[in-house]
Amino acid sequence: MNKRQKIITTGVWFLLTGSICVIIFSGYQLKKSLQIYEAGNQSYETLKEQAHRRESGSESGGELLSGNVPPDFIDFEWLNKINPDTSAWLYCPDTAIDYPVMRADDYDWYLHHLPDGSSNANGTLFLDPNCPEDFLGDLSIIYGHHMKSGRMFGSLTGYKKQDYFDEHPSMFLYTKKGNYRVDLKYGCVISAGEWRDRAFIYEVNLDALLAYASTKTTFKSAAENGDDDSFLVLSTCSYEFDDARYIVIGVLRPESGSQRGIGEE
What is residue 119's DSSP assignment? Predict the structure, then answer.
């Protein structure tokens, strides 16, 4: 083997060794990421098992529920012991959306932390800091990650198709003041810049937001609204272009005879 062949052989071995190291490191990182996501998923499953309640008629509360079963009410007293920022619980039948909603002081913390305060890529659904924490204003906005697993708000972009909306036309919002059915009205893609520039986070621009969404909605809904109705906006990332967001807008319908959260007046 001449000198040139030795140099080429040595180079090939270096490249091969480097490639193997990259593959091993990438596999380690992927395994680590999956473990982090799974830890977050398990944390939420535990929260659901404890927070979901079915009314039993006893003064101390109802029976515990597990799985994707709609509760009669949510045990906010227990949730507040985990995190006093707990503001609501959002549930959409037959989807992964079954999570607590936190009151946030900024737009960053709950993107990277679970309700118990631990750091996790799943993050937590959280209410826009500009919105009343009791959901009694005209406009409430909830943010959540678009997870590839479908967790958090990963399933929200399903509303880009009419068939998905037809199967999931409503959600349910449980709060400390009362419960609501959320009749979904519009869904649309908007850039983060346009969202900010139009100041859609503020109640004063609610009419403009509804007018904008009505011309760009990805599904048709028979949901109606009046002048006194309040609205809920759900927002997550979308990938049509850089900084794209997908928002779903629903009308909040107070449920008659709705139960207050356990331990709340």
Answer: B
Per-residue pLDDT of the chain (265 residues; tens, 9 = 90+): 566 555 555 555 555 555 554 444 444 444 444 445 565 677 788 888 888 875 543 344 445 444 455 667 788 999 999 999 999 999 999 999 999 999 999 999 999 999 999 999 899 999 999 999 899 999 999 999 999 888 899 999 999 999 999 999 999 999 998 999 999 999 999 999 999 999 999 999 999 999 999 999 999 999 999 989 999 999 999 999 999 999 999 999 998 654 434 444 4
Residue type, 80: N
Residue of 164, 135, 126, 124 lying closest to 251 (CA atoms): 135
Amino acid residing at 27:
G
- Kindly state the tokens that stand for 18: 């480097």
Per the domain annotation, does 40 fall within a domain? no
Cα–Cα dist 37/193, whole Å: 29
pTM: 0.80
| Domain annotation covers residue 12 | no
Structural domain count, the chain:
1
